[in-house]
Amino acid sequence: MGLRQYRNFINGELRPASEVIQVENPFTQQIIAEVAKGGAAEADDALQAARAAQPAWAKKSAAARGEVLKQFAQVIRDHRVELAELLMHEQAKIAPLAQVEIDVTATYFDYYAGWARVYEGEIINSDDPQENIFLFQKPIGVVVGICPWNFPFFVMARKVAPSLLVGCTTVLKPSSTTPLTTLRFAELVAELDLPPGVLNFVAGGGATLGDALVRHPLTDMVSLTGSVEAGVEIIKGSAEKIMKTSLELGGKAPAIVFPDADMDIAIKGVTDSRLIFSGQVCNCAERAYVHASIYDEFVDKLKASFEAAVLDDPALPGVTYSSQIDRAQLDKISDMVDKAVADGAEVVTGGRAADKPSGYFYEPTIIVGAAQDSQIVQKEVFGPVLPIVKWDDYDEVIAMANDVEYGLTSSVFTRDVSTVMQAIKDLNFGETYVNREHFEGIQGFHAGWRKSGIGGADGKHGLFEYLQSQVAYIRY
Ligand code: NAD
Protein backbone atom coordinates (compact mmCIF):
# COMPACT_ATOMS: atom_id res chain seq x y z
CA MET A 1 0.00 0.00 0.00
CA GLY A 2 1.29 3.46 -0.91
CA LEU A 3 1.86 6.22 1.59
CA ARG A 4 -1.12 8.35 2.64
CA GLN A 5 -1.12 11.55 0.55
CA TYR A 6 -2.16 14.96 1.86
CA ARG A 7 -3.09 17.85 -0.41
CA ASN A 8 -3.16 21.62 -0.08
CA PHE A 9 -6.48 23.44 0.22
CA ILE A 10 -6.67 26.44 -2.11
CA ASN A 11 -9.79 28.36 -3.16
CA GLY A 12 -12.05 25.66 -1.77
CA GLU A 13 -10.28 22.76 -3.53
CA LEU A 14 -7.91 20.07 -2.31
CA ARG A 15 -4.98 20.14 -4.70
CA PRO A 16 -1.91 17.93 -5.15
CA ALA A 17 1.45 19.44 -6.15
CA SER A 18 4.24 18.31 -8.45
CA GLU A 19 6.62 17.87 -5.50
CA VAL A 20 6.05 16.25 -2.11
CA ILE A 21 7.37 16.54 1.44
CA GLN A 22 7.93 13.24 3.23
CA VAL A 23 6.86 13.25 6.86
CA GLU A 24 8.68 11.09 9.40
CA ASN A 25 7.32 9.63 12.62
CA PRO A 26 10.17 10.62 14.96
CA PHE A 27 9.63 7.71 17.33
CA THR A 28 9.59 4.93 14.70
CA GLN A 29 11.83 6.88 12.29
CA GLN A 30 9.55 5.66 9.47
CA ILE A 31 8.14 7.86 6.69
CA ILE A 32 4.39 7.89 7.33
CA ALA A 33 2.94 10.25 4.71
CA GLU A 34 3.58 12.49 1.74
CA VAL A 35 2.38 16.06 1.57
CA ALA A 36 1.91 18.31 -1.46
CA LYS A 37 4.79 20.79 -1.42
CA GLY A 38 3.73 24.31 -2.32
CA GLY A 39 5.96 27.04 -3.75
CA ALA A 40 5.59 30.49 -5.29
CA ALA A 41 2.78 29.38 -7.66
CA GLU A 42 0.67 27.95 -4.81
CA ALA A 43 1.38 31.06 -2.73
CA ASP A 44 0.03 33.22 -5.53
CA ASP A 45 -3.06 31.04 -6.08
CA ALA A 46 -3.91 30.97 -2.39
CA LEU A 47 -3.41 34.71 -1.92
CA GLN A 48 -5.45 35.57 -5.02
CA ALA A 49 -8.25 33.40 -3.65
CA ALA A 50 -8.02 34.96 -0.18
CA ARG A 51 -8.04 38.47 -1.65
CA ALA A 52 -11.07 37.75 -3.84
CA ALA A 53 -13.00 36.26 -0.91
CA GLN A 54 -12.18 38.94 1.67
CA PRO A 55 -14.72 41.73 0.92
CA ALA A 56 -17.73 39.38 0.98
CA TRP A 57 -16.43 37.63 4.09
CA ALA A 58 -15.99 40.98 5.88
CA LYS A 59 -19.55 41.99 4.91
CA LYS A 60 -21.05 39.03 6.77
CA SER A 61 -22.02 39.66 10.35
CA ALA A 62 -19.45 38.69 12.94
CA ALA A 63 -22.09 36.35 14.36
CA ALA A 64 -22.27 34.53 10.98
CA ARG A 65 -18.50 34.23 10.90
CA GLY A 66 -18.61 32.96 14.48
CA GLU A 67 -20.99 30.20 13.39
CA VAL A 68 -18.28 28.96 10.99
CA LEU A 69 -15.78 28.80 13.86
CA LYS A 70 -18.31 26.76 15.84
CA GLN A 71 -18.52 24.34 12.88
CA PHE A 72 -14.72 24.02 12.96
CA ALA A 73 -14.89 23.22 16.67
CA GLN A 74 -17.54 20.59 16.01
CA VAL A 75 -15.67 18.77 13.22
CA ILE A 76 -12.58 18.70 15.42
CA ARG A 77 -14.61 17.16 18.25
CA ASP A 78 -16.19 14.66 15.83
CA HIS A 79 -12.68 13.52 14.81
CA ARG A 80 -10.88 14.12 18.11
CA VAL A 81 -9.38 10.65 18.52
CA GLU A 82 -8.26 10.33 14.89
CA LEU A 83 -6.66 13.80 14.97
CA ALA A 84 -4.86 13.10 18.26
CA GLU A 85 -3.42 9.86 16.91
CA LEU A 86 -2.19 11.63 13.79
CA LEU A 87 -0.60 14.35 15.91
CA MET A 88 1.08 11.72 18.08
CA HIS A 89 2.48 9.95 15.03
CA GLU A 90 3.78 13.05 13.25
CA GLN A 91 5.68 14.44 16.23
CA ALA A 92 6.03 11.80 18.99
CA LYS A 93 3.80 13.78 21.35
CA ILE A 94 2.60 11.50 24.16
CA ALA A 95 -1.00 10.40 23.58
CA PRO A 96 -2.63 12.31 26.49
CA LEU A 97 -0.92 15.58 25.52
CA ALA A 98 -1.85 15.09 21.85
CA GLN A 99 -5.47 14.64 22.93
CA VAL A 100 -5.30 17.79 25.08
CA GLU A 101 -3.97 19.77 22.11
CA ILE A 102 -6.82 18.62 19.86
CA ASP A 103 -9.49 19.28 22.49
CA VAL A 104 -8.10 22.71 23.43
CA THR A 105 -8.04 23.63 19.75
CA ALA A 106 -11.78 22.90 19.49
CA THR A 107 -12.34 25.01 22.61
CA TYR A 108 -10.23 27.77 21.07
CA PHE A 109 -12.50 28.00 18.02
CA ASP A 110 -15.54 28.12 20.30
CA TYR A 111 -13.89 30.74 22.48
CA TYR A 112 -13.31 33.13 19.56
CA ALA A 113 -16.78 32.38 18.14
CA GLY A 114 -18.02 33.84 21.43
CA TRP A 115 -16.25 37.13 20.68
CA ALA A 116 -18.54 37.79 17.68
CA ARG A 117 -21.03 39.78 19.73
CA VAL A 118 -18.47 41.16 22.16
CA TYR A 119 -15.74 43.08 20.35
CA GLU A 120 -16.57 46.69 19.65
CA GLY A 121 -15.27 50.12 18.73
CA GLU A 122 -15.44 53.28 20.84
CA ILE A 123 -17.25 56.59 20.98
CA ILE A 124 -14.83 59.36 21.97
CA ASN A 125 -15.83 62.75 23.42
CA SER A 126 -15.11 65.56 20.99
CA ASP A 127 -13.98 69.09 21.93
CA ASP A 128 -16.92 70.24 19.81
CA PRO A 129 -20.28 69.64 21.57
CA GLN A 130 -21.90 69.21 18.15
CA GLU A 131 -19.59 66.40 17.11
CA ASN A 132 -19.16 62.69 17.90
CA ILE A 133 -15.95 60.82 17.30
CA PHE A 134 -16.43 57.16 16.42
CA LEU A 135 -13.58 54.67 16.42
CA PHE A 136 -14.43 51.70 14.21
CA GLN A 137 -12.51 48.42 14.14
CA LYS A 138 -11.99 46.92 10.69
CA PRO A 139 -10.31 43.71 9.51
CA ILE A 140 -6.73 44.09 8.29
CA GLY A 141 -7.48 42.05 5.15
CA VAL A 142 -5.51 39.04 3.91
CA VAL A 143 -3.53 37.32 6.67
CA VAL A 144 -0.71 34.82 6.23
CA GLY A 145 -0.29 32.51 9.24
CA ILE A 146 2.99 30.61 9.57
CA CYS A 147 3.22 27.82 12.15
CA PRO A 148 6.00 25.95 14.02
CA TRP A 149 6.23 22.19 14.45
CA ASN A 150 5.76 21.92 18.22
CA PHE A 151 2.03 22.70 18.73
CA PRO A 152 1.00 22.66 15.07
CA PHE A 153 -2.73 22.19 15.52
CA PHE A 154 -3.24 24.62 18.38
CA VAL A 155 -1.09 27.33 16.80
CA MET A 156 -3.04 26.90 13.54
CA ALA A 157 -6.22 27.81 15.46
CA ARG A 158 -4.43 30.68 17.18
CA LYS A 159 -4.10 32.32 13.78
CA VAL A 160 -7.22 31.09 11.98
CA ALA A 161 -9.81 31.70 14.72
CA PRO A 162 -9.26 35.42 15.48
CA SER A 163 -8.41 36.40 11.90
CA LEU A 164 -11.52 34.79 10.39
CA LEU A 165 -13.79 36.00 13.19
CA VAL A 166 -13.03 39.68 12.54
CA GLY A 167 -13.43 39.38 8.74
CA CYS A 168 -9.91 38.69 7.48
CA THR A 169 -9.28 35.82 5.08
CA THR A 170 -6.31 33.57 5.72
CA VAL A 171 -3.58 31.52 4.09
CA LEU A 172 -2.07 29.15 6.63
CA LYS A 173 1.33 27.49 6.20
CA PRO A 174 2.05 24.58 8.57
CA SER A 175 5.61 23.53 9.33
CA SER A 176 7.02 21.04 6.81
CA THR A 177 8.00 18.85 9.78
CA THR A 178 4.45 18.47 11.17
CA PRO A 179 1.84 19.35 8.51
CA LEU A 180 -0.42 16.30 8.77
CA THR A 181 -2.97 17.24 11.43
CA THR A 182 -3.47 20.64 9.83
CA LEU A 183 -3.93 19.14 6.35
CA ARG A 184 -6.34 16.51 7.71
CA PHE A 185 -8.31 19.45 9.16
CA ALA A 186 -8.21 21.03 5.67
CA GLU A 187 -9.92 17.87 4.34
CA LEU A 188 -12.62 18.28 6.97
CA VAL A 189 -13.03 21.99 6.17
CA ALA A 190 -13.37 21.08 2.48
CA GLU A 191 -16.58 19.21 3.37
CA LEU A 192 -18.12 22.30 5.00
CA ASP A 193 -19.96 25.06 3.23
CA LEU A 194 -17.21 27.66 3.59
CA PRO A 195 -16.96 30.24 0.76
CA PRO A 196 -13.91 29.40 -1.42
CA GLY A 197 -10.78 31.36 -0.57
CA VAL A 198 -11.76 32.35 2.98
CA LEU A 199 -9.36 29.81 4.46
CA ASN A 200 -6.48 28.20 2.55
CA PHE A 201 -3.83 25.73 3.70
CA VAL A 202 -0.54 25.41 1.82
CA ALA A 203 2.43 23.32 3.01
CA GLY A 204 6.02 23.99 2.00
CA GLY A 205 9.41 25.26 3.08
CA GLY A 206 10.06 28.46 5.01
CA ALA A 207 12.64 30.05 2.72
CA THR A 208 10.58 29.14 -0.39
CA LEU A 209 6.82 29.08 0.14
CA GLY A 210 6.99 31.04 3.42
CA ASP A 211 9.08 33.81 1.92
CA ALA A 212 6.84 33.99 -1.17
CA LEU A 213 3.77 34.38 1.05
CA VAL A 214 5.41 37.12 3.13
CA ARG A 215 6.69 39.17 0.18
CA HIS A 216 3.58 38.82 -1.99
CA PRO A 217 1.86 42.17 -2.66
CA LEU A 218 -1.58 40.77 -1.74
CA THR A 219 -0.53 39.90 1.83
CA ASP A 220 -1.66 42.51 4.37
CA MET A 221 -0.32 40.91 7.55
CA VAL A 222 1.87 38.00 8.62
CA SER A 223 1.43 36.18 11.90
CA LEU A 224 4.40 33.91 12.61
CA THR A 225 5.03 31.54 15.48
CA GLY A 226 8.59 30.28 15.23
CA SER A 227 12.23 31.05 15.87
CA VAL A 228 13.88 34.45 16.23
CA GLU A 229 15.75 33.72 12.99
CA ALA A 230 12.50 33.26 11.05
CA GLY A 231 11.13 36.42 12.70
CA VAL A 232 14.09 38.41 11.41
CA GLU A 233 13.51 37.09 7.87
CA ILE A 234 9.83 37.98 8.05
CA ILE A 235 10.58 41.52 9.20
CA LYS A 236 13.03 41.84 6.28
CA GLY A 237 10.42 40.45 3.86
CA SER A 238 7.77 42.88 5.12
CA ALA A 239 9.98 45.98 5.36
CA GLU A 240 9.47 47.35 1.87
CA LYS A 241 5.70 46.91 2.13
CA ILE A 242 5.52 48.45 5.65
CA MET A 243 3.36 45.45 6.54
CA LYS A 244 2.07 44.51 9.96
CA THR A 245 3.72 41.48 11.52
CA SER A 246 2.71 39.62 14.65
CA LEU A 247 5.63 37.52 15.87
CA GLU A 248 5.60 34.84 18.59
CA LEU A 249 9.22 33.77 18.86
CA GLY A 250 11.59 31.89 21.13
CA GLY A 251 12.23 32.27 24.84
CA LYS A 252 14.66 31.62 27.68
CA ALA A 253 12.29 31.70 30.61
CA PRO A 254 13.71 32.01 34.15
CA ALA A 255 12.08 30.24 37.11
CA ILE A 256 13.09 31.95 40.38
CA VAL A 257 12.81 29.89 43.54
CA PHE A 258 12.77 31.90 46.79
CA PRO A 259 13.83 30.55 50.20
CA ASP A 260 10.23 30.37 51.46
CA ALA A 261 8.89 28.52 48.40
CA ASP A 262 6.76 25.42 48.86
CA MET A 263 9.39 22.93 47.72
CA ASP A 264 6.95 20.37 46.31
CA ILE A 265 5.12 22.99 44.27
CA ALA A 266 8.40 24.40 42.96
CA ILE A 267 9.73 20.96 41.97
CA LYS A 268 6.49 20.05 40.23
CA GLY A 269 6.18 23.43 38.51
CA VAL A 270 9.74 23.42 37.17
CA THR A 271 9.60 19.75 36.13
CA ASP A 272 6.28 20.16 34.33
CA SER A 273 7.54 23.31 32.63
CA ARG A 274 10.79 21.82 31.45
CA LEU A 275 9.73 18.30 30.49
CA ILE A 276 6.30 18.78 28.88
CA PHE A 277 6.46 17.57 25.26
CA SER A 278 9.99 16.33 25.92
CA GLY A 279 11.19 19.91 26.50
CA GLN A 280 10.05 21.34 23.16
CA VAL A 281 7.85 24.24 24.26
CA CYS A 282 8.56 27.95 23.78
CA ASN A 283 7.41 29.15 27.19
CA CYS A 284 9.04 26.36 29.24
CA ALA A 285 11.32 27.19 32.18
CA GLU A 286 14.72 27.23 30.43
CA ARG A 287 16.75 28.39 33.48
CA ALA A 288 16.20 28.00 37.24
CA TYR A 289 17.58 30.45 39.81
CA VAL A 290 17.46 28.89 43.26
CA HIS A 291 18.28 30.60 46.57
CA ALA A 292 21.47 29.34 48.22
CA SER A 293 19.67 28.32 51.44
CA ILE A 294 17.55 25.68 49.60
CA TYR A 295 19.80 25.05 46.61
CA ASP A 296 21.13 21.59 47.57
CA GLU A 297 17.69 20.28 48.53
CA PHE A 298 16.17 21.67 45.30
CA VAL A 299 18.84 20.12 43.07
CA ASP A 300 18.50 16.71 44.76
CA LYS A 301 14.71 16.72 44.51
CA LEU A 302 14.64 17.99 40.94
CA LYS A 303 17.14 15.29 39.97
CA ALA A 304 14.79 12.63 41.36
CA SER A 305 11.86 14.26 39.62
CA PHE A 306 13.63 14.38 36.23
CA GLU A 307 14.78 10.77 36.65
CA ALA A 308 11.16 9.70 37.26
CA ALA A 309 10.25 10.62 33.67
CA VAL A 310 9.15 7.54 31.70
CA LEU A 311 10.82 7.57 28.26
CA ASP A 312 9.20 5.39 25.60
CA ASP A 313 6.68 5.01 22.80
CA PRO A 314 4.31 8.02 22.97
CA ALA A 315 1.32 5.69 22.47
CA LEU A 316 1.95 3.62 25.62
CA PRO A 317 0.03 4.36 28.82
CA GLY A 318 2.18 5.80 31.60
CA VAL A 319 4.81 7.21 29.25
CA THR A 320 5.55 10.85 30.10
CA TYR A 321 8.27 11.70 27.62
CA SER A 322 9.29 10.59 24.12
CA SER A 323 11.52 11.28 21.14
CA GLN A 324 12.75 14.72 20.11
CA ILE A 325 11.29 15.88 16.82
CA ASP A 326 14.22 14.93 14.58
CA ARG A 327 17.93 14.25 14.27
CA ALA A 328 18.78 17.94 13.92
CA GLN A 329 17.04 18.78 17.20
CA LEU A 330 18.81 15.92 18.99
CA ASP A 331 22.19 17.05 17.64
CA LYS A 332 21.55 20.67 18.61
CA ILE A 333 20.71 19.71 22.21
CA SER A 334 23.78 17.43 22.44
CA ASP A 335 26.05 20.17 21.11
CA MET A 336 24.73 22.73 23.58
CA VAL A 337 25.18 20.40 26.56
CA ASP A 338 28.67 19.39 25.40
CA LYS A 339 29.64 23.03 25.08
CA ALA A 340 28.28 23.80 28.57
CA VAL A 341 30.43 21.01 30.00
CA ALA A 342 33.47 22.18 28.02
CA ASP A 343 32.87 25.66 29.49
CA GLY A 344 33.04 24.24 33.04
CA ALA A 345 29.47 23.26 33.92
CA GLU A 346 28.59 19.93 35.49
CA VAL A 347 25.83 17.48 34.52
CA VAL A 348 23.71 16.37 37.51
CA THR A 349 21.55 13.97 35.52
CA GLY A 350 21.12 13.12 31.84
CA GLY A 351 23.54 14.87 29.51
CA ARG A 352 23.33 12.32 26.71
CA ALA A 353 21.11 10.71 24.12
CA ALA A 354 19.04 7.91 25.64
CA ASP A 355 19.81 4.36 24.56
CA LYS A 356 16.60 3.34 22.77
CA PRO A 357 16.01 1.03 19.80
CA SER A 358 14.38 3.81 17.81
CA GLY A 359 13.63 7.53 18.10
CA TYR A 360 15.71 10.64 18.81
CA PHE A 361 15.66 10.43 22.60
CA TYR A 362 17.64 12.81 24.80
CA GLU A 363 17.63 12.23 28.56
CA PRO A 364 16.07 14.88 30.81
CA THR A 365 19.12 16.90 31.84
CA ILE A 366 20.09 19.15 34.76
CA ILE A 367 23.24 21.27 34.63
CA VAL A 368 24.85 23.20 37.49
CA GLY A 369 27.82 25.55 37.65
CA ALA A 370 27.16 27.29 34.32
CA ALA A 371 28.11 30.97 34.22
CA GLN A 372 25.40 33.58 33.67
CA ASP A 373 27.03 34.63 30.40
CA SER A 374 27.44 31.07 29.06
CA GLN A 375 25.53 29.82 26.02
CA ILE A 376 23.43 27.33 28.02
CA VAL A 377 22.11 30.15 30.27
CA GLN A 378 21.69 32.70 27.48
CA LYS A 379 20.39 30.82 24.41
CA GLU A 380 17.17 28.89 23.88
CA VAL A 381 17.78 25.11 23.93
CA PHE A 382 14.18 24.14 23.09
CA GLY A 383 15.01 20.78 24.59
CA PRO A 384 14.90 19.02 27.99
CA VAL A 385 17.92 20.76 29.53
CA LEU A 386 17.75 22.93 32.66
CA PRO A 387 20.73 24.90 33.98
CA ILE A 388 20.33 25.77 37.68
CA VAL A 389 22.06 28.89 39.02
CA LYS A 390 22.51 29.66 42.75
CA TRP A 391 21.67 33.13 44.10
CA ASP A 392 21.86 35.07 47.38
CA ASP A 393 20.59 38.56 46.71
CA TYR A 394 17.17 39.67 45.33
CA ASP A 395 18.51 42.46 43.11
CA GLU A 396 21.17 40.13 41.72
CA VAL A 397 18.71 37.39 40.79
CA ILE A 398 16.30 39.81 39.12
CA ALA A 399 19.20 41.26 37.13
CA MET A 400 20.28 37.76 36.03
CA ALA A 401 16.71 36.77 35.12
CA ASN A 402 16.28 39.89 32.98
CA ASP A 403 19.72 39.55 31.41
CA VAL A 404 18.76 37.71 28.18
CA GLU A 405 17.79 38.80 24.69
CA TYR A 406 14.40 37.06 24.98
CA GLY A 407 11.39 38.15 27.06
CA LEU A 408 8.62 35.58 26.71
CA THR A 409 7.76 34.03 30.09
CA SER A 410 9.07 33.85 33.65
CA SER A 411 7.99 32.36 36.98
CA VAL A 412 8.47 32.84 40.70
CA PHE A 413 7.97 30.38 43.54
CA THR A 414 7.37 31.96 46.95
CA ARG A 415 4.69 32.10 49.68
CA ASP A 416 5.17 35.82 50.29
CA VAL A 417 2.73 38.12 48.52
CA SER A 418 5.06 41.14 48.73
CA THR A 419 7.80 39.17 46.99
CA VAL A 420 5.30 38.14 44.31
CA MET A 421 4.18 41.71 43.65
CA GLN A 422 7.72 43.11 43.68
CA ALA A 423 9.01 40.39 41.34
CA ILE A 424 6.16 40.92 38.86
CA LYS A 425 7.06 44.62 38.85
CA ASP A 426 10.74 43.93 38.32
CA LEU A 427 10.64 41.09 35.75
CA ASN A 428 10.79 42.21 32.11
CA PHE A 429 8.82 39.40 30.46
CA GLY A 430 5.47 39.18 28.71
CA GLU A 431 4.22 36.59 31.22
CA THR A 432 4.94 35.77 34.84
CA TYR A 433 3.58 32.63 36.50
CA VAL A 434 3.43 32.37 40.29
CA ASN A 435 3.68 29.00 42.04
CA ARG A 436 2.78 27.04 38.91
CA GLU A 437 4.19 25.74 35.66
CA HIS A 438 4.60 28.03 32.65
CA PHE A 439 1.54 27.49 30.47
CA GLU A 440 -0.85 30.11 29.19
CA GLY A 441 -4.66 30.30 29.11
CA ILE A 442 -6.70 31.03 25.97
CA GLN A 443 -8.23 34.15 27.51
CA GLY A 444 -4.83 35.61 28.53
CA PHE A 445 -2.35 37.33 26.21
CA HIS A 446 0.71 35.41 25.06
CA ALA A 447 3.16 38.08 23.96
CA GLY A 448 6.93 38.26 24.22
CA TRP A 449 9.18 41.23 24.93
CA ARG A 450 12.53 41.93 23.23
CA LYS A 451 13.50 39.22 20.71
CA SER A 452 10.58 37.01 21.81
CA GLY A 453 8.30 38.90 19.52
CA ILE A 454 6.02 41.71 18.47
CA GLY A 455 2.32 41.65 19.33
CA GLY A 456 0.75 38.49 20.69
CA ALA A 457 -2.03 35.92 20.71
CA ASP A 458 -5.10 34.87 22.74
CA GLY A 459 -7.91 36.68 24.47
CA LYS A 460 -9.16 40.16 23.65
CA HIS A 461 -5.74 41.55 22.76
CA GLY A 462 -5.03 38.61 20.44
CA LEU A 463 -8.27 39.37 18.59
CA PHE A 464 -7.36 43.03 18.14
CA GLU A 465 -4.10 42.00 16.43
CA TYR A 466 -6.19 41.35 13.30
CA LEU A 467 -8.08 44.66 13.39
CA GLN A 468 -7.16 48.17 12.36
CA SER A 469 -8.95 51.29 13.58
CA GLN A 470 -10.72 53.98 11.58
CA VAL A 471 -11.76 57.18 13.34
CA ALA A 472 -14.73 59.13 12.00
CA TYR A 473 -15.47 62.73 13.12
CA ILE A 474 -19.20 63.30 12.76
CA ARG A 475 -20.53 66.85 13.16
CA TYR A 476 -24.29 67.25 13.47
P1 NAD B 1 11.18 27.87 12.64
O1 NAD B 1 11.43 29.32 12.81
O2 NAD B 1 12.23 27.02 12.09
O3 NAD B 1 9.90 27.65 11.70
C1 NAD B 1 8.64 28.23 12.03
C2 NAD B 1 7.86 28.44 10.74
O4 NAD B 1 8.48 29.52 10.02
C3 NAD B 1 7.88 27.23 9.81
O5 NAD B 1 6.60 27.08 9.21
C4 NAD B 1 8.93 27.61 8.79
O6 NAD B 1 8.75 26.97 7.56
C5 NAD B 1 8.70 29.11 8.68
N1 NAD B 1 9.82 29.89 8.16
C6 NAD B 1 11.13 29.70 8.41
N2 NAD B 1 11.86 30.62 7.72
C7 NAD B 1 10.98 31.40 7.06
C8 NAD B 1 11.12 32.51 6.16
N3 NAD B 1 12.31 32.99 5.81
N4 NAD B 1 10.00 33.07 5.66
C9 NAD B 1 8.78 32.59 5.99
N5 NAD B 1 8.59 31.53 6.81
C10 NAD B 1 9.68 30.94 7.34
O7 NAD B 1 10.69 27.34 14.09
P2 NAD B 1 10.35 25.84 14.49
O8 NAD B 1 11.63 25.08 14.59
O9 NAD B 1 9.24 25.30 13.68
O10 NAD B 1 9.75 26.08 15.96
C11 NAD B 1 10.56 26.24 17.08
C12 NAD B 1 10.72 27.70 17.44
O11 NAD B 1 9.42 28.29 17.55
C13 NAD B 1 11.37 27.90 18.79
O12 NAD B 1 12.26 28.98 18.73
C14 NAD B 1 10.20 28.21 19.70
O13 NAD B 1 10.54 28.94 20.85
C15 NAD B 1 9.32 28.97 18.80
N6 NAD B 1 7.93 28.93 19.26
C16 NAD B 1 7.41 30.06 19.81
C17 NAD B 1 6.11 30.04 20.30
C18 NAD B 1 5.50 31.28 20.91
O14 NAD B 1 4.28 31.29 21.09
N7 NAD B 1 6.25 32.32 21.21
C19 NAD B 1 5.35 28.87 20.24
C20 NAD B 1 5.93 27.73 19.66
C21 NAD B 1 7.23 27.77 19.17
Indicate the CATH class of the largest domain: Alpha Beta
CATH-defined fold name of the largest domain: Aldehyde Dehydrogenase, Chain A, domain 1
Hetero compounds: nicotinamide-adenine-dinucleotide
| Order of strands in the sheet with most strands | 15-16-17-14-13-19-20
Describe the 3D structure.
With 476 residues, this protein is an alpha/beta fold. The protein has 2 domains: 4-249 and 452-475, Aldehyde Dehydrogenase, Chain A, domain 1 (3-Layer(aba) Sandwich), CATH 3.40.605.10; 253-441, Aldehyde Dehydrogenase, Chain A, domain 2, CATH 3.40.309. It has helices spanning 40-59, 62-78, 80-91, 95-113, 152-165, 180-190, 206-215, 228-239, 263-275, 295-307, 327-342, 375-378, 394-402, 417-426, 459-464; strands at 4-6, 8-10, 13-15, 20-25, 30-36, 122-125, 131-139, 142-146, 169-173, 199-201, 221-225, 244-248, 253-257, 285-291, 346-349, 365-368, 385-391, 406-407, 409-413, 431-434, 449-450, 453-454, 467-475. Strands 15-16-17-14-13-19-20 form a 7-stranded mixed sheet, sandwiched between helices. Helix 2 (62-78) packs antiparallel against helix 4 (95-113), helix 4 runs parallel beside helix 5 (152-165) and helix 9 (263-275) packs across helix 10 (295-307). It starts with a strand and ends with a strand. Residues 146-151, 173, 175-176, 205-207, 210-211, 214, 224-227, 230, 233-234, 248-251, 282, 380, 382, 408, 446, 448, 453 line the site of nicotinamide-adenine-dinucleotide.
